[in-house]
Amino acid sequence: MKSWLVTGGCGFIGSHLAERLGRSGDRIVVLDDLSSGRVDNLPSGVEFVKGDIRDAGLVAEVMRAVDGCYHLAAIASVARSNEDWAGTHAVNLTGTINIFDAARAAALSGRRLRVVYASSAAVYGDCTDIPLAETAPTRPLTAYGADKLGCELHGRVAFQVHGVPNVGLRFFNVFGPRQDPASPYSGVIAIFAKAVQEGRAPTILGDGKQVRDFVYVEGVVDALTAAMAREDLTCDVFNVCTGDATSIESLARLIFEIYGTTPDIKHGPPRAGDIRKSVGNPHRLRTVLGVPPTISVADGMRRTLDWMRSTNR
Ligand code: NAD
Ligand code: UD1
Asked: In a mutational test of the pocket of ligand 1, which residue from 6, 7, 13, 40 has the highest number of ligand atoms less than 8 Å from its CB?
């Protein structure tokens, strides 16, 4: 039996990962401070430690008895990184260094512990080489994107200097059940769907022509487990995306269509540092990590909206 640490396991993506890992019969430990996650997202049988990744001593303690760490804990909102620059930095970058540092301590005591961590498409910023391959220039526009790029740079240090094998996954816009619809800092799909369910007009920030590459959460879990399993990958980054572009305007229309409504749309000012075009090239994800495509945005959206209706969240 193997033993895995999932940081941020009470959150949206982390809880889907914990569920998948739990099915294998392995021991799963989740470290989460519940700042945006919920304990009731966790499947049964998981060991839960309530704590903060900024607490280096605690991180070292929970890392001591595991074979690998899936590091997902972060403040996942670009908008929050604009509002609280230093605070999000402490979690998103310093917290990640604490994870690598604890893995280094394990390496020094003879245990080679792998780290697979969440990076982001935000590292590309305003790069226009669409679809974005991993070799495209990284030009983050926000503190969130800069910190995710910082995680990748420290990932290089972790392996080159300290022998900690690691893989960063540049998730594009992930969606699916358990993405918190109640939080204004949540992903756009959850926010729009909640508004339509409550009979409110969703607000498009800017002209709505900005595009995103929406990837269903199941495909993200496939990528995480594939990256952990590939012990030959010692220091690498991969896009986790579909290659398909959806504008925010057409996303709103798709949600209205699924709900069978035609509410008004409000427009608000564009968000500072909002990326205009974010579409990834999934070539290495498919050929090197061997992760197949999952369901379409429309089908994923139907599943997500069904979940929202059935849980009333
Ligand atoms: P989420 O907010 O649902 O999950 C993050 C989890 O981390 C939450 O359970 C939260 O309580 C926990 N957490 C936050 N700060 C913590 C701290 N200091 N100590 C311990 N736990 C802490 O977000 P998510 O969408 O599931 O994102 C997971 C990861 O994927 C994040 O690293 C995020 O930056 C990254 N990511 C997400 C997306 C997306 O579209 N959702 C895209 C790219 C990257
Ligand atoms: C999202 C993720 C981030 C991830 C990145 C990777 C969340 C909260 N953020 O950021 O963690 O690293 O993808 O690509 O999941 N919008 C509106 N109206 C709203 C909310 C948003 O028009 O009410 C627009 C935004 O201006 C943006 C688009 O929708 O253009 C997507 O916004 P959002 O879901 O917050 O995601 P990203 O900023 O792309």
From this structure: 13
- Whole-angstrom distance, CA of residue 235 vs CA of residue 100: 12
**What is the number of the ligand 1 atom nearest to the C-alpha of 174?**
40
Q: Is the pLDDT of residue 312 over 90?
A: no
Q: Could you tell me which of 296, 253, 254, 248 has the C-alpha nearest to residue 274?
A: 248
Section 2-14 average pLDDT: 97
Atom 18 (ligand 2) nearest CA: 204
Is residue 144 part of the annotated active site? The answer reads yes
- Distance from C-alpha of 254 to C-alpha of 259, rounded to nearest angstrom: 9
The neighbour count for residue 231, using CB atoms within 10 Å, is 10
Model pTM score: 0.98
End-to-end Cα distance, the chain: 35
What pLDDT, in 10s, does the model give residues 42-71?
A: 999 999 999 999 999 999 999 998 999 999
Give the pLDDT of residue 182.
86
Distance, in Å, from the CA atom of 202 to the CA atom of 216, rounded to the nearest integer, reads 21
Q: Is the CB of 37 under 6 A from ligand 1?
A: yes
Question: What is residue 107's predicted lDDT score, i.e. its pLDDT?
Answer: 87
Average pLDDT, integer, range 163-177: 98
CATH superfamily of 180-211+245-281+296-311: UDP-galactose 4-epimerase, domain 1 (3.90.25.10)
Give domain 3-174+214-242+283-287's CATH number out of 3.90.79.10, 3.40.190.10, 3.40.50.720, 3.30.70.1450. 3.40.50.720
Mind giving me the DSSP string for 11-40? SHHHHHHHHHHHTTT-EEEEEE--SS--GG
Bridge pairing between strands 211-212 and 246-247:
antiparallel
Distance from chain centroid for Cα 86: 20
Pocket-forming residues, ligand 2, beta carbon under 6 Å: 76-78, 120-122, 171-173, 186-188, 191, 203-205, 210, 212, 248, 271, 274, 278
